[in-house]
């Protein structure tokens, strides 16, 4: 009989303690700390996301039900509600942002996703989503008269569907303001919607050798230079080389305007790109992949704690959102291995999540999905939130440092 560690313990092996402690010292996160460590706070907040906890009481109570089983996680005892609340309010959220960056580098180095396209250019998806807040509780996040909100700007790597870069701003910040701060290596293909319209930014991307695919606004002015040959079939209605601008201003670089047929009863899509080499059908397929980031946002909001928050301060909210991104990265890698996750992996819904048990062989797989199992079931005594299975690809993770992500602020 082989004794194996819990699923939660295997997931935490993505975060080597030495690297985590180095980040703690870098951000001075445990300055004036007494007893409760940042590692314990990270375990509690990750437990909140994977265990579907709605409050501090459920987090602390859920960990308390596993009393005696927490030392293998590096946590001597379950924290008190006031202790966890104080840590979320005062400890720097930049620590969790750095942990998220290290997780992306590590997952990217070991993932082997399937390629949908033949080209070797890096493909990234850029978009933002609004996270609604209560204006009376989150008065610092005023968005409208009776509504508060923050905006999550995300850059999703198409190769593995892992979040590559994320930034959290107030709800009034425009998407293009964050996009102007990003720097992409030459040859990257950026796919985005019409919320990123900026002709000067388009020209800067073109001069840097970065390709983009987006939709052209219906009121945009342009001049047609020539028409390109259309491929066989009726999917592509037009393929033109254009210059953006009117009679008083013309964009220096040439762009392509591609009209794609969607359905008989819908208006065609008008795409805009600076890539003059790819076929028009390939450009249409590239833009179709933009929907994957919408699927990612849907899974992020539906399966993780982004609608109910365990703290009302700006620091606590940022910590919870960065922890949700960390949990989503774990799910994207361990659960799907290269396909965009439609729902969180089965370990997030398993009642036996932190409990160590014995296995008859060394090839145990993840437990079956248990959509009805919630963390409250464990707290009420109907089960414990800890179970045991072997994750062979999690255990094979190395702590070798990798290079920085391919996109980031200038």
Order of helices and strands: EHHHHHHEEEEHEEHEEEEEHHHEHHE
What is the multimeric organization of the chains shown? single chain
Helical content (DSSP H or I, runs of 4+): 25-40%
Q: State the secondary-structure class.
A: alpha+beta
Low-confidence blocks of residues: 336-351, 357-406
How many strand elements?
Answer: 14
How would you describe what is shown here?
The protein has 410 residues and is α+β, with helices and mostly antiparallel strands. Among the domains are: 2-100 and 308-409, no CATH class; 201-285, no CATH class. Helix content is 33%, strand content 19%. The protein is built from 13 helices and 14 strands. It has helices spanning 7-12, 17-27, 38-50, 56-64, 81-90, 94-110, 175-179, 199-207, 280-288, 291-303, 314-336, 375-379, 392-395, and strands at 2-4, 123-133, 142-144, 147-157, 162-170, 182-183, 189-191, 211-215, 222-227, 236-244, 255-260, 269-273, 357-359, 408-409. The strands form three sheets. Strands 2, 3, 4, 5, 7, 8, 9, 10, 11 and 12 form a ten-stranded mixed beta sheet that branches. Strands 1-13 form a two-stranded antiparallel sheet. Helix 5 (81-90) crosses helix 11 (314-336).
């Amino acid at each position: 009989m082989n004794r194996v560690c819990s699923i939660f313990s295997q997931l935490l092996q993505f975060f080597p303690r030495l690297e985590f402690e180095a980040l703690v010292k870098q951000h001075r996160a445990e300055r004036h700390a007494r007893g409760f460590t940042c590692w314990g706070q990270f375990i509690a907040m990750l437990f909140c996301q994977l265990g579907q906890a709605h409050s501090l009481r459920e987090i602390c109570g859920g960990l308390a039900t596993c009393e005696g089983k927490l030392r293998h996680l590096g946590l001597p005892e379950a924290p008190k509600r006031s202790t966890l609340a104080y840590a979320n309010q005062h400890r720097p959220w930049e620590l969790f942002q750095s942990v998220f960056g290290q997780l992306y580098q590590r997952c990217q180095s070991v993932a082997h996703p399937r390629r949908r396209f033949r080209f070797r250019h890096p493909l990234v998806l850029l978009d933002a989503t609004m996270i609604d807040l209560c204006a009376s509780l989150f008065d610092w996040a005023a968005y409208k008269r009776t509504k508060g909100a923050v905006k999550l700007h995300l850059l999703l790597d198409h190769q593995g569907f892992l979040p590559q870069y994320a930034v959290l701003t107030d709800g009034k910040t425009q998407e293009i303001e964050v996009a102007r701060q990003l720097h992409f290596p030459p040859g990257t293909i950026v796919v985005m919607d019409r919320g990123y319209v900026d002709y000067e930014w388009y020209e800067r991307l073109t001069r840097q050798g970065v390709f983009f695919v987006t939709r052209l606004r219906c009121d945009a002015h342009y001049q047609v230079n020539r028409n390109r040959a259309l491929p066989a079939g009726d999917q592509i209605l037009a393929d033109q080389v254009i210059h953006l601008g009117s009679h008083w201003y013309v964009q220096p670089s040439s762009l392509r305007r591609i009209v794609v047929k969607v359905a008989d009863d819908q208006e065609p899509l008008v795409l805009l790109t600076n890539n003059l080499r790819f076929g028009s059908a390939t450009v249409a397929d590239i833009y179709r992949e933009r929907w994957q980031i919408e699927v990612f946002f849907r899974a992020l909001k539906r399966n993780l704690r982004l609608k109910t928050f365990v703290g009302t301060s700006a620091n606590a909210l940022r910590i919870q959102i960065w922890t949700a991104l960390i949990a989503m990265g774990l799910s994207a890698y361990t659960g799907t291995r290269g396909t965009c996750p439609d729902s969180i992996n089965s370990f997030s819904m398993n009642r036996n999540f932190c409990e160590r048990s014995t296995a008859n062989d060394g090839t145990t797989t993840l437990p079956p999905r248990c959509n009805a199992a919630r963390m409250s079931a464990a707290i009420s005594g109907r089960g414990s939130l800890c179970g045991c299975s072997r994750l062979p690809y999690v255990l094979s993770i190395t702590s070798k440092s990798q290079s920085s992500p391919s996109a980031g602020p200038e």
